[in-house]
Design goal:
This protein is mostly beta strands. The protein is built from 4 helices and 10 strands; from the N terminus they run ββααβββββααβββ.
Length: 231
């Protein structure tokens, strides 16, 4: 990665997928260490590299904010699978969200990818997100990120640690972001007992990060925005 001006420039040399052992750890360790890593999405219409700037951690069946809180279902089965795989879900009948499974198999912990900076593949991302007024808005929010990357149910369960150059989804090692610039706070849109946990992590001052929004009663479908409900 080379930083220059207002945009981070992508250097395609020397990056390899994160090893599965990176994800096979407690989710509260994994989540902040994903900031600054590179997500690569390879699709028939193009390849996009994105730098992760905002995430949220969900701690499985012990976490009231998690989809796994009430146990395993057909919908959340991927969360209970091996670490280093994608968990994709559909929300409000409108948008997809992308999560990465963490911890030992069966613990159902995961990290929601909330935002990122598109480094390559801007034209492809713009076609998928034509309403974005500027590039910093292409993946600003979990639903926008998933739309820009063309994430749907076909990616649910995808191995993000694959070393295949043509893998549809992978997380590259690179370097973790400077911890002095990482902030934490309550998770967006999580209410009840899960609201107390400061398990949202972001890169301070990054223009792709959305402002915090507390939990609000669910509104009519027509009034929802593209932020979506978190896991």
């Amino acid at each position: 990665m080379i930083t220059g001006g207002d945009r981070t420039r992508w250097d395609d040399d020397g990056h390899t997928p994160l090893h599965r052992s990176f994800f096979d750890r407690p989710v509260l360790e994994v989540a902040p260490e994903l900031l600054g890593r590179y997500l690569v999405r390879t699709a028939p219409d193009g390849r996009i590299v994105l730098r992760i700037t905002e995430v949220e951690a969900y701690a499985g069946e012990a976490d009231p904010g998690s989809h796994a809180y009430r146990g395993r279902t057909q919908r959340n089965a991927s969360m209970f699978g091996p670490p280093g795989h994608a968990y994709v879900y559909f929300i409000y009948g409108m948008w997809f969200s992308l999560n990465l499974v963490c911890g030992p198999e069966g613990h159902a912990s995961g990290v929601l990818l909330r935002a990122g900076e598109v480094l390559t593949g801007h034209d492809t991302a713009r076609k998928r997100r034509p309403k974005a007024r500027k590039d910093t808005e292409l993946a600003k929010g979990p639903a926008r990120l998933a739309t820009a990357l063309d994430v749907d149910r076909t990616l649910n369960g995808t191995d993000v640690c694959s070393t295949d150059d043509h893998a549809p989804l992978s997380i590259l090692a690179g370097e973790a972001h400077d911890t002095e610039q990482i902030r934490s706070g309550p998770r967006t849109g999580v209410g009840g007992a899960g609201a107390v946990h400061p398990w949202r992590y972001w890169i301070d001052g990054d223009p792709t990060v959305r402002p915090y929004r507390p939990h609000q009663p669910r509104r009519r479908r027509g009034s929802l925005d593209s932020d979506g409900r978190t896991t």
